[in-house]
Amino acid sequence: MSTSPSHTVMTTMSAPAGQRRPRFGSRGRLEPYLLIAPTVLLVAGLMVVPVVIVIVYSLFNNVVTNQNPQFVGLTNYFTILSDSSFWNAAGNTAVFTVASVVIHMVIGVAFALMLNSKLVHTLPRSIFRAVYVLPWIFTASVVAVLWRLLLDPSGVVNFLLESLGVLHHAVPWLGTPATALLAVTLINIWSGYPFFMISLLAGLQGVPADLYEAARVDGAGLARQFVSVTLPALRPILFSMALLDLLWTTQQFTLIWATTGGGPIDHTEVLSTYTYKLAFNGYQFSLASTSAVLILLASLIVAIFYVRQQRKESQ
Amino acid sequence: MSTVMRPRARRGLARVLIYLALLVGALFAGFPVLWMLSSSFKSNANIFAYPPALIDGSFSFQPYLDVLTDPVKIGYFVNSYIVALCVVVITLVIALLAAYVFSRYEFRFKSIIRVVIIGVQAVPPITLLIPFFGIMVGLHLYNTYQGLVLTYVVFTLPYAIIMMTAYFDSLPRELDEAARVDGAGSLSVLWRILVPVSIPGMVSVGLYTFMISWNEYLFALTLTQTDDRRTVPVGIQLLMGQNNYLWNQVMAMSILGSVPVLVLFLIFQRYFIGGLAAGAVKS
């Protein structure tokens, strides 16, 4: 390849964008590899290798704690998949995740539509938007302590519900088997909807105004406009956000760990806390790795859907 | 006349309803935060006073003073800042180099590397936790800043690369080709030509990176052991673990721990929302 600068410019200018690139001699050919090397080293060493390690761990017994682990094939998978605690955790994860994602979506759409409404004046709009984004500022660790304070038996939520006559006596929401999963789900809903809302707001601003105009001319009411203009325009964002949220919520650890620790007993145990306890409370690293691989598989399935969706959208 | 009034009246009613709904939503979103703020100024004895009040006789800055004069708690903040700032700088540098290559070069393995970088984002943290524990102990990076920094760099790198590549792709190629003609090397083109016009993208990626590092809990919990390496999210939980909950100090520390993200958010709101929304939909 020529290294003459003028030739370089010619090649690029005449080549269709994004197809052919100039090369810069032998040093030039090495250069991309040098520049990408830190990334490749880090991602390979601390992402790819650990994933391989955890898969290998899942096929052996007595890993980490013992010098000589024994290969046991898929035995650990049979152990985990026949463990009722695993299925309890999987069930809780499913309830927690599906409820969170659906309600995130509903609240996200509702708040975004309200904030985007022409009926709301500019100043209140910015104030409301700022308030609505607030939960997003706080990390899970902070959200957890805040809601432990709010939901305490002598806390303000119980006080309000008692004052309104909804409750006759205080309920320890996070400590009662019947309400604990509901409570952690509520907390997750509170902390997660702003991300939906923000993306939907950006999406709403991208809906051409003349679409609404045309719908109005055709005699469509607000509800009809929402169904035939707004929803179709937001559908790709909604779908992507829902899949991302699904991915993140199934992986939620901190919020559960710092509010209930999976309790009372195992009523809020999710797959991540179950796995963590196997590893760092029970030192059963082989079984924990097996559970971690199963979580990975579930995540990959969601991720594949996500990537497919992205492909479809970009075509 | 009535046919003119009716839509206007309906509009008025709709406006009232929307404001009512907005207020209910604001209560849901804002009240918990207001209560956190209020509790952070109370004496611990008054935290669960009956009936509860937003501001009561015990109002003072004492909880904040208690947090800010405790060397251990100050240490949590120092650790969080050190780790987060290191991660931002290192992630940005590595991501810029990678994004530059992805945007401006063709080379073998390019598409494989790209697929892997996109793919690893789907790996759940809990899956990586067990091997990471072993690796960090093996590398003697357990309970060190370097261990946490390395961990967060790897976590934030894929998103940073994807975003910066998209940013560079949006810049006209003629920009750096012109510098090439003048004989500038790749790094010099990157540094002198591309970086200065990519500040908005870098700010957005930097903020994201800072937030992830500042907020991370699971690995901070597992990969550190002593107070002199604990970060704020773990420190807050340690405060909760003691026998007598010092609720007011926990709330004060939570507020203080959220201030950096709040401030960054307020200053860079535009970059933040635009970048995040774009990232969520594109990455």
Question: Would you give an account of this structure?
Answer:
- The complex is a heterodimer of chains A (315) and B (283).
- Chain A is mostly helical and 315 residues long.
- Chain A has a single domain, classed as MetI-like fold.
- Chain A contains 13 helices and 2 strands, in the order H-H-E-E-H-H-H-H-H-H-H-H-H-H-H.
- In chain A, strands 1-2 form a two-stranded antiparallel sheet.
- In chain A, a hairpin with an 8-residue loop joins strand 1 and strand 2.
- In chain A, helix 3 packs across helix 13, helix 10 (222-250) packs antiparallel against helix 13 and helix 12 packs antiparallel against helix 13.
- Chain A is globular.
- The two termini of chain A are 34 Å apart.
- In chain A, 42% of the residues are buried.
- By secondary structure, chain B is mainly alpha-helical.
- Chain B folds into 2 domains: 2-39; 62-282, MetI-like fold, CATH 1.10.3720.
- Helix content of chain B is 76%, strand content 0%.
- The model of chain B is unreliable at 279-283 (pLDDT under 50).
- At the A-B interface, helix 1, helix 2, helix 4, helix 5 and helix 6 of A face helix 1, helix 3, helix 4, helix 5 and helix 6 of B.
